[in-house]
Amino acid sequence: MSTRLINWFKFSSPATFYPLAGRIVTWSAVVAVVLLAIGLYMSFFVAPTDYKQGEGYRIIFVHVPASWMSMFIYVVMAAWSGIGLVFNTRLSSMMAQALAPTGALFAFLALWTGAFWGKPMWGTWWVWDARLTSELILLFLYIGFIALQGAIDDPRRADRAGAILALVGVVNIPIIYFSVKWWNTLHQGASVTITKGSSMGQVMLVTMLIMVFAFWAYAIAVSLARVRAIILEREKETTWVRELVGGAR
Questions:
Q1: SS3 state of residue 114
Q2: Distance CA 164, CA 145 (A)
Q3: Which residues form the Cytochrome c assembly protein domain (predicted)?
C-alpha cells in the first residue's frame, strides 16, 4: 500500500504530471466529442416532448449539466487552492488556475441558457431570483479569481490571494444548491436528487447523464491542456522544460 501511495505522490511534481496530463487530455477530448454528439442528438431528436413546456424544455440538457459543472468545478478549484495554500505545492495552485476559466465558461453557459429557458416560461429574460442571483455571483467569483491572479506579478503571492478568495467563495455553493428550498423562488426544484431519485422520464434522464459526462470529459481535457501550458510557463527556467522545449524544436 505504501509503495502505491509513493507512486501516486510522484505525480505531484509538475515534471512527472506534465506527460500524464498529456495522455489524459487526448482520451478525454475523444470521449467528450463522442458523448457530446450522442447527447445533443438525443436531446433534439430522441427525448420526448415535455407535456407542460413543449419543445422549449430541451435546453435543460445543456442548462442543467452546465449549472452542475459550474458548481462542481468551483469546489474542486477551491480544494486545489486550499491544498496549495496549506502545503505550498506548486502543482495544486496551477490546477486551480487552470480550472477557473472552464468554471467561468460553464457558469456563463448556465446563465445564458437559463435566460433562453426563462423567457418563454416566465415571460422575461432575467429575474432577481435567489438561484439566478447566486449563480451570477458564482460567475463573478470566477472572474474575480482570474483577475486577481492576473493583477499580481509574483506567482506565489497571486496563488495565495486567489486561494483565499476561492475558499471564501465556497460558501456560495450551498446557497446556489439550496436556494430553491430556502426561499420562495421562480426557479423549479431539482428533478434529480440523491435521496429522492429522479422525477424525469428514463430517456430524459439518460440524455441528461450523457450530457453531464460529456461536460465532465470536456472540462478534464481543457483544464489539463491549460495546466500543461501553465507548467511550461512557470517552470521555463528548469532543466527539464528547457530540454523539452529544445527537443520539440
A1: helix
A2: 9
A3: 22-187
d(CA 55, CA 47): 10
Q: What residues pair up with 197 in beta bridges, in sequence order?
A: 193
- Provide DSSP, 215-234: HHHHHHHHHHHHHHHHHHHH
**DSSP β-bridge partners for residue 50:** 54
Q: Is the dihedral of CA 89, 91, 93, 99 positive or negative?
A: negative
Beta bridge partners of 192: 198
Is 5 domain-assigned?
no
Residues in the chain: 249
CB atoms within 10 A of CB 82: 17
pLDDT tens string 16-64: 999 999 999 999 999 999 999 999 999 999 988 876 777 777 889 999 9
**Has residue 36 been placed in a domain?**
yes
In total, how many domains does the chain have?
A: 1
- Tell me how far apart the alpha carbons of residues 139 and 129 are, in angstroms, rounded to a whole number: 15
Dist. CA 112–CA 64, nearest whole Å? 12
Is residue 136 domain-resident?
Answer: yes
**Owning domain of residue 83:** 20-248
- Asked whether the predicted pLDDT for residue 144 surpasses 90, the reply is yes
- Contact of 67 with 108, CB cutoff 8 Å: no
Say if residues 71 and 138 touch (Cβ distance below 8 Å).
yes
Closest CA to 9 of 112, 102, 87, 97: 87
DSSP designation for 237: T
Is the residue at 10 inside a domain? no
- CATH of residue 50's domain is 1.20.120
> Mean pLDDT of all residues in the chain?
86
Query: Band of the pLDDT at 10, cuts 50, 70, 90?
Result: low
